[in-house]
Request: fold
Amino acid sequence: MTSSSDRSLAVDVHVPKSYEIRTYGCQMNVHDSERLSGLLEEAGYVRAPEGSDGDADVVVFNTCAVRENADNRLYGNLGRLAPRKASRPGMQIAVGGCLAQKDRDTITKKAPWVDVVFGTHNIGKLPVLLERARVQEEAQVEIAESLEAFPSTLPTRRESAYAAWVSISVGCNNTCTFCIVPALRGKEKDRRTGDILAEIEALVGEGVSEITLLGQNVNAYGSDIGDREAFSKLLRACGAIEGLERVRFTSPHPRDFTDDVIAAMAETPNVMPQLHMPLQSGSDTVLKAMRRSYRQERYLGIIEKVRAAIPHAAITTDIIVGFPGETEEDFEQTLHTVREARFAQAFTFQYSKRPGTPAATMEDQIPKEVVQARYERLVAVQEEISWEENKKQVGRTIELMVAEGEGRKDGATHRLSGRAPDNRLVHFTKPDQEVRPGDVVTVEVTYAAPHHLLAEGQVLGVRRTRAGDAWEKRTAEKAAKPAGVLLGLPKIGAPAPLPVATGSGCGCD
Reply:
Protein backbone atom coordinates (compact mmCIF):
# COMPACT_ATOMS: atom_id res chain seq x y z
CA MET A 1 0.00 0.00 0.00
CA THR A 2 1.27 3.48 -0.80
CA SER A 3 2.49 5.08 2.44
CA SER A 4 2.01 8.69 3.51
CA SER A 5 5.76 9.21 3.11
CA ASP A 6 5.55 7.93 -0.47
CA ARG A 7 2.70 10.31 -1.23
CA SER A 8 4.81 13.20 0.02
CA LEU A 9 6.97 12.67 -3.06
CA ALA A 10 4.04 13.71 -5.26
CA VAL A 11 4.12 16.53 -7.79
CA ASP A 12 4.30 20.13 -6.62
CA VAL A 13 0.69 21.29 -6.68
CA HIS A 14 1.80 24.82 -7.62
CA VAL A 15 3.11 23.59 -10.96
CA PRO A 16 0.39 21.21 -12.21
CA LYS A 17 1.40 18.82 -14.94
CA SER A 18 -0.95 17.18 -17.44
CA TYR A 19 -1.47 13.46 -17.92
CA GLU A 20 -2.93 11.15 -20.56
CA ILE A 21 -3.80 7.47 -20.10
CA ARG A 22 -4.12 5.06 -23.00
CA THR A 23 -6.00 1.89 -22.11
CA TYR A 24 -5.97 -1.47 -23.89
CA GLY A 25 -7.81 -4.70 -23.05
CA CYS A 26 -10.58 -5.73 -20.73
CA GLN A 27 -12.85 -4.01 -18.19
CA MET A 28 -10.27 -4.70 -15.49
CA ASN A 29 -7.90 -2.41 -17.36
CA VAL A 30 -10.60 0.20 -17.90
CA HIS A 31 -11.32 0.23 -14.18
CA ASP A 32 -7.60 0.28 -13.33
CA SER A 33 -7.15 3.30 -15.59
CA GLU A 34 -9.80 5.15 -13.62
CA ARG A 35 -7.77 4.42 -10.50
CA LEU A 36 -4.60 5.64 -12.19
CA SER A 37 -6.41 8.86 -13.09
CA GLY A 38 -7.52 9.25 -9.49
CA LEU A 39 -4.00 8.68 -8.16
CA LEU A 40 -2.47 11.20 -10.56
CA GLU A 41 -5.08 13.85 -9.83
CA GLU A 42 -4.63 13.33 -6.10
CA ALA A 43 -0.91 13.86 -6.70
CA GLY A 44 -1.57 17.21 -8.40
CA TYR A 45 -1.68 16.31 -12.08
CA VAL A 46 -4.50 17.51 -14.33
CA ARG A 47 -6.05 15.56 -17.16
CA ALA A 48 -4.92 16.60 -20.64
CA PRO A 49 -7.66 17.72 -23.05
CA GLU A 50 -9.23 15.05 -25.25
CA GLY A 51 -7.30 14.49 -28.45
CA SER A 52 -3.95 15.40 -26.88
CA ASP A 53 -2.39 12.36 -28.60
CA GLY A 54 0.76 12.27 -26.53
CA ASP A 55 0.99 16.02 -25.98
CA ALA A 56 0.97 15.70 -22.18
CA ASP A 57 3.60 15.89 -19.46
CA VAL A 58 2.94 12.26 -18.50
CA VAL A 59 1.66 9.57 -20.87
CA VAL A 60 0.64 6.27 -19.27
CA PHE A 61 0.07 3.05 -21.23
CA ASN A 62 -2.18 0.58 -19.40
CA THR A 63 -1.49 -2.54 -21.41
CA CYS A 64 -3.06 -5.88 -22.25
CA ALA A 65 -1.09 -9.08 -22.89
CA VAL A 66 -3.87 -11.29 -24.24
CA ARG A 67 -3.85 -10.54 -27.95
CA GLU A 68 -1.00 -11.55 -30.24
CA ASN A 69 -0.21 -8.03 -31.45
CA ALA A 70 -0.16 -6.45 -27.97
CA ASP A 71 3.64 -6.19 -27.92
CA ASN A 72 3.90 -4.69 -31.41
CA ARG A 73 1.16 -2.19 -30.65
CA LEU A 74 2.86 -1.01 -27.47
CA TYR A 75 6.35 -0.68 -28.92
CA GLY A 76 5.00 1.04 -32.02
CA ASN A 77 3.25 3.64 -29.88
CA LEU A 78 6.31 4.07 -27.68
CA GLY A 79 8.44 4.57 -30.78
CA ARG A 80 6.17 7.32 -32.06
CA LEU A 81 6.48 9.14 -28.72
CA ALA A 82 10.29 8.96 -28.57
CA PRO A 83 11.02 12.08 -30.67
CA ARG A 84 8.32 14.04 -28.88
CA LYS A 85 9.82 13.14 -25.52
CA ALA A 86 13.29 14.09 -26.74
CA SER A 87 12.05 17.56 -27.72
CA ARG A 88 10.02 18.11 -24.55
CA PRO A 89 12.13 18.37 -21.38
CA GLY A 90 10.47 16.84 -18.36
CA MET A 91 8.01 14.65 -20.27
CA GLN A 92 7.59 11.17 -18.77
CA ILE A 93 6.26 7.88 -20.12
CA ALA A 94 4.97 5.06 -17.93
CA VAL A 95 3.92 1.52 -18.89
CA GLY A 96 1.68 -0.59 -16.65
CA GLY A 97 -0.83 -3.41 -16.89
CA CYS A 98 -0.55 -7.03 -17.93
CA LEU A 99 2.15 -6.61 -20.58
CA ALA A 100 4.29 -4.70 -18.08
CA GLN A 101 3.79 -7.50 -15.54
CA LYS A 102 4.90 -10.02 -18.18
CA ASP A 103 7.78 -8.22 -19.91
CA ARG A 104 9.25 -6.29 -16.96
CA ASP A 105 12.84 -5.27 -17.80
CA THR A 106 12.32 -5.99 -21.49
CA ILE A 107 10.35 -2.77 -21.91
CA THR A 108 13.15 -0.45 -20.83
CA LYS A 109 15.63 -2.42 -22.94
CA LYS A 110 13.52 -2.08 -26.08
CA ALA A 111 12.40 1.47 -25.24
CA PRO A 112 15.03 3.08 -22.95
CA TRP A 113 13.15 6.38 -23.04
CA VAL A 114 10.40 4.87 -20.83
CA ASP A 115 10.59 6.31 -17.29
CA VAL A 116 8.40 3.94 -15.27
CA VAL A 117 7.30 0.30 -15.56
CA PHE A 118 4.79 -0.98 -12.97
CA GLY A 119 2.67 -4.12 -12.70
CA THR A 120 -0.92 -5.13 -12.10
CA HIS A 121 -0.41 -5.53 -8.35
CA ASN A 122 1.10 -2.14 -7.52
CA ILE A 123 -0.73 0.50 -9.54
CA GLY A 124 -0.92 2.63 -6.40
CA LYS A 125 2.80 3.36 -6.72
CA LEU A 126 2.60 5.23 -10.04
CA PRO A 127 2.88 8.84 -8.71
CA VAL A 128 5.80 7.86 -6.44
CA LEU A 129 7.62 6.05 -9.25
CA LEU A 130 7.19 9.02 -11.59
CA GLU A 131 8.66 11.38 -9.01
CA ARG A 132 11.47 8.97 -8.19
CA ALA A 133 12.34 8.67 -11.90
CA ARG A 134 12.41 12.46 -12.18
CA VAL A 135 14.64 12.95 -9.14
CA GLN A 136 17.03 10.06 -9.83
CA GLU A 137 16.98 10.61 -13.62
CA GLU A 138 16.73 6.92 -14.34
CA ALA A 139 13.98 4.45 -15.19
CA GLN A 140 12.04 2.92 -12.33
CA VAL A 141 10.89 -0.68 -12.78
CA GLU A 142 8.77 -2.02 -9.93
CA ILE A 143 6.73 -5.20 -10.38
CA ALA A 144 5.03 -6.58 -7.28
CA GLU A 145 4.50 -10.34 -7.23
CA SER A 146 1.32 -10.18 -5.18
CA LEU A 147 -1.44 -7.67 -4.54
CA GLU A 148 -0.28 -4.83 -2.28
CA ALA A 149 -3.74 -3.40 -1.60
CA PHE A 150 -7.19 -4.18 -2.99
CA PRO A 151 -7.49 -1.68 -5.87
CA SER A 152 -10.86 -0.33 -4.74
CA THR A 153 -9.12 1.27 -1.74
CA LEU A 154 -7.30 3.60 -4.16
CA PRO A 155 -8.60 7.01 -5.25
CA THR A 156 -10.42 6.81 -8.59
CA ARG A 157 -11.57 9.29 -11.18
CA ARG A 158 -14.87 7.85 -12.39
CA GLU A 159 -15.72 8.43 -16.02
CA SER A 160 -19.45 8.40 -15.38
CA ALA A 161 -21.68 10.24 -12.94
CA TYR A 162 -24.50 7.69 -13.21
CA ALA A 163 -22.90 4.25 -13.76
CA ALA A 164 -20.02 2.57 -11.95
CA TRP A 165 -17.82 -0.49 -11.94
CA VAL A 166 -17.55 -2.23 -8.56
CA SER A 167 -14.78 -4.80 -8.24
CA ILE A 168 -15.74 -7.79 -6.10
CA SER A 169 -12.62 -9.86 -6.74
CA VAL A 170 -9.29 -9.78 -8.52
CA GLY A 171 -7.33 -12.61 -10.07
CA CYS A 172 -8.44 -15.99 -11.40
CA ASN A 173 -8.03 -19.62 -10.29
CA ASN A 174 -8.69 -21.13 -13.72
CA THR A 175 -5.97 -22.64 -15.91
CA CYS A 176 -7.37 -22.17 -19.43
CA THR A 177 -4.64 -23.14 -21.87
CA PHE A 178 -5.14 -20.09 -24.09
CA CYS A 179 -5.06 -17.50 -21.32
CA ILE A 180 -2.11 -15.78 -19.67
CA VAL A 181 -4.21 -13.58 -17.39
CA PRO A 182 -4.06 -15.76 -14.22
CA ALA A 183 -0.26 -15.65 -14.39
CA LEU A 184 -0.36 -11.85 -14.56
CA ARG A 185 -3.29 -11.06 -12.26
CA GLY A 186 -2.63 -13.79 -9.71
CA LYS A 187 -4.93 -16.14 -7.81
CA GLU A 188 -8.48 -15.03 -7.05
CA LYS A 189 -8.82 -12.76 -4.04
CA ASP A 190 -12.33 -11.78 -2.90
CA ARG A 191 -13.40 -8.61 -1.18
CA ARG A 192 -15.46 -8.69 1.99
CA THR A 193 -19.18 -8.52 1.15
CA GLY A 194 -19.68 -5.71 3.66
CA ASP A 195 -17.03 -3.60 1.94
CA ILE A 196 -18.65 -4.16 -1.47
CA LEU A 197 -22.12 -3.19 -0.23
CA ALA A 198 -20.77 -0.16 1.62
CA GLU A 199 -19.10 1.01 -1.56
CA ILE A 200 -22.28 0.55 -3.59
CA GLU A 201 -24.34 2.46 -1.00
CA ALA A 202 -21.84 5.31 -1.09
CA LEU A 203 -21.99 5.38 -4.89
CA VAL A 204 -25.79 5.51 -4.82
CA GLY A 205 -25.48 8.38 -2.36
CA GLU A 206 -23.48 10.25 -5.01
CA GLY A 207 -26.20 9.71 -7.61
CA VAL A 208 -25.07 6.49 -9.28
CA SER A 209 -28.08 4.38 -10.30
CA GLU A 210 -26.38 1.52 -12.19
CA ILE A 211 -23.48 -0.64 -11.04
CA THR A 212 -21.64 -3.48 -12.72
CA LEU A 213 -20.07 -6.07 -10.44
CA LEU A 214 -16.67 -6.85 -11.88
CA GLY A 215 -14.37 -9.83 -11.54
CA GLN A 216 -12.10 -11.89 -13.76
CA ASN A 217 -14.41 -14.80 -12.90
CA VAL A 218 -17.19 -12.90 -11.19
CA ASN A 219 -19.49 -15.74 -10.17
CA ALA A 220 -16.66 -17.65 -8.50
CA TYR A 221 -16.94 -15.00 -5.81
CA GLY A 222 -16.90 -16.76 -2.46
CA SER A 223 -14.27 -19.38 -3.30
CA ASP A 224 -11.72 -17.32 -1.40
CA ILE A 225 -13.98 -17.12 1.67
CA GLY A 226 -15.44 -20.63 1.48
CA ASP A 227 -19.06 -19.82 0.53
CA ARG A 228 -20.31 -21.28 -2.75
CA GLU A 229 -23.50 -19.22 -2.61
CA ALA A 230 -21.77 -15.92 -1.84
CA PHE A 231 -22.39 -14.47 -5.29
CA SER A 232 -26.15 -15.13 -5.31
CA LYS A 233 -26.34 -13.69 -1.80
CA LEU A 234 -24.50 -10.59 -3.01
CA LEU A 235 -26.97 -10.14 -5.89
CA ARG A 236 -29.90 -10.36 -3.49
CA ALA A 237 -28.23 -7.89 -1.10
CA CYS A 238 -27.88 -5.43 -3.97
CA GLY A 239 -31.66 -5.67 -4.38
CA ALA A 240 -32.11 -4.21 -0.91
CA ILE A 241 -30.15 -1.01 -1.64
CA GLU A 242 -32.61 1.85 -2.03
CA GLY A 243 -31.98 3.99 -5.09
CA LEU A 244 -29.97 1.35 -6.94
CA GLU A 245 -31.96 0.80 -10.13
CA ARG A 246 -29.77 -1.48 -12.22
CA VAL A 247 -27.29 -4.22 -11.34
CA ARG A 248 -25.18 -6.04 -13.93
CA PHE A 249 -22.14 -8.32 -13.65
CA THR A 250 -19.33 -9.54 -15.86
CA SER A 251 -17.90 -11.98 -16.65
CA PRO A 252 -19.13 -15.30 -15.22
CA HIS A 253 -17.76 -18.75 -15.95
CA PRO A 254 -20.13 -21.63 -16.86
CA ARG A 255 -18.36 -23.88 -14.36
CA ASP A 256 -19.50 -21.72 -11.44
CA PHE A 257 -22.92 -20.76 -12.77
CA THR A 258 -25.27 -22.43 -10.32
CA ASP A 259 -29.04 -22.58 -9.92
CA ASP A 260 -28.99 -20.24 -6.91
CA VAL A 261 -27.49 -17.50 -9.12
CA ILE A 262 -30.26 -17.97 -11.71
CA ALA A 263 -32.87 -17.73 -8.95
CA ALA A 264 -31.26 -14.59 -7.53
CA MET A 265 -31.25 -12.97 -10.99
CA ALA A 266 -34.91 -13.83 -11.56
CA GLU A 267 -36.11 -12.80 -8.10
CA THR A 268 -34.14 -9.58 -7.58
CA PRO A 269 -35.92 -6.76 -9.46
CA ASN A 270 -32.89 -4.51 -9.99
CA VAL A 271 -30.69 -7.31 -11.38
CA MET A 272 -31.02 -6.80 -15.11
CA PRO A 273 -32.27 -9.51 -17.53
CA GLN A 274 -28.88 -9.76 -19.19
CA LEU A 275 -26.19 -12.43 -19.07
CA HIS A 276 -22.76 -12.51 -20.67
CA MET A 277 -21.65 -16.16 -20.60
CA PRO A 278 -18.37 -16.96 -22.42
CA LEU A 279 -18.66 -20.11 -24.55
CA GLN A 280 -15.24 -20.08 -26.29
CA SER A 281 -16.07 -23.24 -28.28
CA GLY A 282 -19.03 -25.52 -28.86
CA SER A 283 -16.84 -28.58 -29.34
CA ASP A 284 -16.32 -30.86 -26.34
CA THR A 285 -12.93 -31.87 -27.75
CA VAL A 286 -11.76 -28.28 -28.04
CA LEU A 287 -13.20 -27.33 -24.65
CA LYS A 288 -11.19 -30.16 -23.11
CA ALA A 289 -8.03 -28.96 -24.88
CA MET A 290 -8.78 -25.43 -23.64
CA ARG A 291 -9.07 -26.86 -20.12
CA ARG A 292 -12.61 -25.49 -19.82
CA SER A 293 -14.44 -27.55 -17.21
CA TYR A 294 -17.87 -27.69 -18.93
CA ARG A 295 -19.11 -29.25 -22.15
CA GLN A 296 -21.67 -28.22 -24.76
CA GLU A 297 -24.58 -29.99 -23.05
CA ARG A 298 -23.84 -28.33 -19.71
CA TYR A 299 -23.53 -24.92 -21.35
CA LEU A 300 -26.80 -25.16 -23.27
CA GLY A 301 -28.47 -26.47 -20.10
CA ILE A 302 -27.53 -23.25 -18.29
CA ILE A 303 -28.93 -21.17 -21.15
CA GLU A 304 -32.17 -23.15 -21.06
CA LYS A 305 -32.55 -22.62 -17.30
CA VAL A 306 -31.87 -18.89 -17.59
CA ARG A 307 -34.46 -18.51 -20.34
CA ALA A 308 -37.03 -20.48 -18.35
CA ALA A 309 -36.55 -18.23 -15.32
CA ILE A 310 -36.03 -14.95 -17.24
CA PRO A 311 -37.81 -15.24 -20.61
CA HIS A 312 -36.71 -11.82 -21.93
CA ALA A 313 -33.05 -12.19 -20.95
CA ALA A 314 -30.51 -11.12 -23.57
CA ILE A 315 -27.60 -13.54 -23.56
CA THR A 316 -24.21 -12.65 -25.07
CA THR A 317 -20.97 -14.61 -25.29
CA ASP A 318 -17.30 -14.80 -26.27
CA ILE A 319 -16.10 -17.33 -28.87
CA ILE A 320 -12.59 -18.22 -30.01
CA VAL A 321 -12.17 -19.54 -33.56
CA GLY A 322 -9.19 -21.57 -34.72
CA PHE A 323 -7.90 -22.99 -31.44
CA PRO A 324 -5.04 -25.46 -32.08
CA GLY A 325 -6.37 -28.78 -33.30
CA GLU A 326 -9.83 -27.44 -34.14
CA THR A 327 -11.24 -29.54 -36.99
CA GLU A 328 -14.06 -28.65 -39.33
CA GLU A 329 -16.29 -30.94 -37.27
CA ASP A 330 -15.29 -29.07 -34.11
CA PHE A 331 -16.13 -25.77 -35.75
CA GLU A 332 -19.50 -27.10 -36.89
CA GLN A 333 -20.23 -27.92 -33.25
CA THR A 334 -19.58 -24.28 -32.40
CA LEU A 335 -22.01 -23.18 -35.11
CA HIS A 336 -24.56 -25.67 -33.77
CA THR A 337 -24.21 -24.27 -30.25
CA VAL A 338 -24.60 -20.71 -31.52
CA ARG A 339 -27.79 -21.64 -33.37
CA GLU A 340 -29.18 -23.43 -30.31
CA ALA A 341 -28.27 -20.69 -27.82
CA ARG A 342 -29.45 -17.81 -30.04
CA PHE A 343 -27.19 -15.20 -28.54
CA ALA A 344 -28.23 -11.57 -28.76
CA GLN A 345 -24.61 -10.88 -29.61
CA ALA A 346 -21.33 -12.77 -29.75
CA PHE A 347 -17.89 -11.26 -29.40
CA THR A 348 -15.77 -13.41 -31.66
CA PHE A 349 -11.99 -13.73 -31.67
CA GLN A 350 -9.49 -15.47 -33.89
CA TYR A 351 -7.19 -17.59 -31.75
CA SER A 352 -4.06 -15.65 -30.85
CA LYS A 353 -0.92 -17.51 -29.79
CA ARG A 354 0.52 -16.06 -26.58
CA PRO A 355 3.98 -17.07 -25.33
CA GLY A 356 3.79 -18.54 -21.86
CA THR A 357 0.47 -20.33 -22.40
CA PRO A 358 0.20 -24.11 -22.96
CA ALA A 359 -1.76 -23.57 -26.19
CA ALA A 360 1.14 -21.68 -27.75
CA THR A 361 3.21 -24.88 -27.99
CA MET A 362 0.38 -27.22 -28.98
CA GLU A 363 0.62 -29.11 -32.24
CA ASP A 364 -1.83 -28.56 -35.11
CA GLN A 365 -1.83 -24.76 -35.08
CA ILE A 366 -4.50 -23.77 -37.61
CA PRO A 367 -3.41 -21.90 -40.77
CA LYS A 368 -4.38 -18.23 -40.78
CA GLU A 369 -6.51 -18.52 -43.93
CA VAL A 370 -8.55 -21.37 -42.39
CA VAL A 371 -9.11 -19.41 -39.19
CA GLN A 372 -10.18 -16.35 -41.16
CA ALA A 373 -12.66 -18.32 -43.26
CA ARG A 374 -14.23 -19.93 -40.17
CA TYR A 375 -14.35 -16.59 -38.41
CA GLU A 376 -16.27 -15.03 -41.30
CA ARG A 377 -18.73 -17.93 -41.38
CA LEU A 378 -19.34 -17.62 -37.63
CA VAL A 379 -19.87 -13.86 -37.85
CA ALA A 380 -22.37 -14.31 -40.68
CA VAL A 381 -24.40 -16.86 -38.69
CA GLN A 382 -24.39 -14.74 -35.56
CA GLU A 383 -25.31 -11.54 -37.45
CA GLU A 384 -28.41 -13.27 -38.79
CA ILE A 385 -29.37 -14.51 -35.32
CA SER A 386 -28.74 -11.09 -33.72
CA TRP A 387 -30.99 -9.44 -36.26
CA GLU A 388 -33.75 -12.03 -35.81
CA GLU A 389 -33.58 -11.68 -32.01
CA ASN A 390 -33.67 -7.89 -32.24
CA LYS A 391 -36.71 -8.01 -34.53
CA LYS A 392 -38.58 -9.69 -31.67
CA GLN A 393 -38.19 -6.43 -29.72
CA VAL A 394 -40.20 -4.38 -32.24
CA GLY A 395 -43.45 -3.22 -30.68
CA ARG A 396 -42.23 -3.62 -27.11
CA THR A 397 -42.48 -0.72 -24.67
CA ILE A 398 -39.27 -0.45 -22.65
CA GLU A 399 -37.51 1.86 -20.22
CA LEU A 400 -34.13 3.19 -21.28
CA MET A 401 -31.43 4.73 -19.15
CA VAL A 402 -30.23 7.65 -21.25
CA ALA A 403 -26.57 7.25 -22.18
CA GLU A 404 -23.84 9.72 -22.94
CA GLY A 405 -22.12 9.56 -26.31
CA GLU A 406 -23.28 6.13 -27.50
CA GLY A 407 -24.94 7.24 -30.72
CA ARG A 408 -22.34 8.48 -33.19
CA LYS A 409 -25.05 9.81 -35.53
CA ASP A 410 -27.36 11.18 -32.83
CA GLY A 411 -26.50 14.80 -33.63
CA ALA A 412 -27.35 14.43 -37.31
CA THR A 413 -30.49 12.36 -36.71
CA HIS A 414 -31.81 14.45 -33.77
CA ARG A 415 -31.89 11.34 -31.63
CA LEU A 416 -30.59 10.32 -28.24
CA SER A 417 -29.40 6.89 -27.15
CA GLY A 418 -30.00 4.68 -24.15
CA ARG A 419 -29.66 1.19 -22.80
CA ALA A 420 -32.60 -1.14 -22.27
CA PRO A 421 -32.71 -3.31 -19.14
CA ASP A 422 -31.25 -6.17 -21.19
CA ASN A 423 -28.42 -3.80 -22.29
CA ARG A 424 -29.55 -3.49 -25.89
CA LEU A 425 -28.63 -0.15 -27.42
CA VAL A 426 -31.66 1.90 -28.48
CA HIS A 427 -31.65 5.19 -30.40
CA PHE A 428 -34.79 7.23 -29.73
CA THR A 429 -36.39 10.45 -30.93
CA LYS A 430 -35.27 13.43 -28.89
CA PRO A 431 -38.24 14.68 -26.84
CA ASP A 432 -39.19 18.34 -26.47
CA GLN A 433 -38.34 18.39 -22.78
CA GLU A 434 -34.80 18.19 -21.48
CA VAL A 435 -33.39 14.69 -21.02
CA ARG A 436 -30.05 14.12 -19.32
CA PRO A 437 -27.73 11.09 -19.23
CA GLY A 438 -28.84 9.01 -16.27
CA ASP A 439 -32.51 9.94 -16.70
CA VAL A 440 -35.01 7.26 -17.72
CA VAL A 441 -37.33 7.41 -20.73
CA THR A 442 -40.12 5.09 -21.85
CA VAL A 443 -40.26 4.32 -25.58
CA GLU A 444 -41.78 1.89 -28.06
CA VAL A 445 -39.35 0.02 -30.32
CA THR A 446 -40.17 0.58 -33.99
CA TYR A 447 -37.21 -0.87 -35.91
CA ALA A 448 -34.46 -3.44 -35.41
CA ALA A 449 -30.97 -3.71 -36.85
CA PRO A 450 -28.44 -6.42 -35.93
CA HIS A 451 -26.66 -4.26 -33.36
CA HIS A 452 -29.18 -1.65 -32.27
CA LEU A 453 -32.88 -0.76 -32.05
CA LEU A 454 -34.79 2.39 -33.00
CA ALA A 455 -37.71 4.05 -31.24
CA GLU A 456 -38.81 6.57 -33.84
CA GLY A 457 -42.11 7.63 -32.29
CA GLN A 458 -42.69 10.13 -29.53
CA VAL A 459 -41.16 9.38 -26.17
CA LEU A 460 -43.94 8.01 -23.96
CA GLY A 461 -42.51 9.23 -20.67
CA VAL A 462 -39.52 10.93 -19.09
CA ARG A 463 -38.41 10.36 -15.50
CA ARG A 464 -35.82 12.73 -14.11
CA THR A 465 -33.49 10.92 -11.74
CA ARG A 466 -30.85 11.57 -9.11
CA ALA A 467 -28.42 10.07 -11.59
CA GLY A 468 -29.36 12.77 -14.09
CA ASP A 469 -28.86 15.36 -11.34
CA ALA A 470 -25.39 13.93 -10.69
CA TRP A 471 -24.53 14.14 -14.39
CA GLU A 472 -25.75 17.74 -14.52
CA LYS A 473 -23.66 18.66 -11.47
CA ARG A 474 -20.54 17.06 -12.89
CA THR A 475 -21.05 18.78 -16.24
CA ALA A 476 -21.24 22.13 -14.47
CA GLU A 477 -18.05 21.33 -12.54
CA LYS A 478 -16.25 20.40 -15.76
CA ALA A 479 -17.31 23.68 -17.33
CA ALA A 480 -15.89 25.53 -14.33
CA LYS A 481 -12.69 23.47 -14.32
CA PRO A 482 -12.05 22.01 -17.80
CA ALA A 483 -9.19 19.76 -16.66
CA GLY A 484 -11.60 17.72 -14.58
CA VAL A 485 -12.28 17.34 -10.89
CA LEU A 486 -11.54 14.30 -8.77
CA LEU A 487 -14.76 13.21 -7.12
CA GLY A 488 -14.92 12.49 -3.41
CA LEU A 489 -15.22 9.12 -1.76
CA PRO A 490 -15.85 6.34 -2.58
CA LYS A 491 -13.81 7.14 -5.69
CA ILE A 492 -14.89 4.15 -7.73
CA GLY A 493 -14.61 3.63 -11.46
CA ALA A 494 -17.27 3.25 -14.12
CA PRO A 495 -17.35 3.56 -17.87
CA ALA A 496 -19.45 6.22 -19.55
CA PRO A 497 -21.16 5.05 -21.51
CA LEU A 498 -21.22 1.39 -20.56
CA PRO A 499 -19.47 -0.60 -23.27
CA VAL A 500 -21.42 -2.51 -25.86
CA ALA A 501 -19.18 -5.51 -25.29
CA THR A 502 -20.12 -6.77 -21.86
CA GLY A 503 -17.57 -9.54 -22.00
CA SER A 504 -13.88 -9.23 -21.36
CA GLY A 505 -13.17 -7.96 -24.84
CA CYS A 506 -10.18 -10.26 -24.91
CA GLY A 507 -11.63 -13.74 -24.87
CA CYS A 508 -9.97 -14.64 -21.60
CA ASP A 509 -13.02 -15.45 -19.47
Summary: The two ends are 28 Å apart (CA to CA).
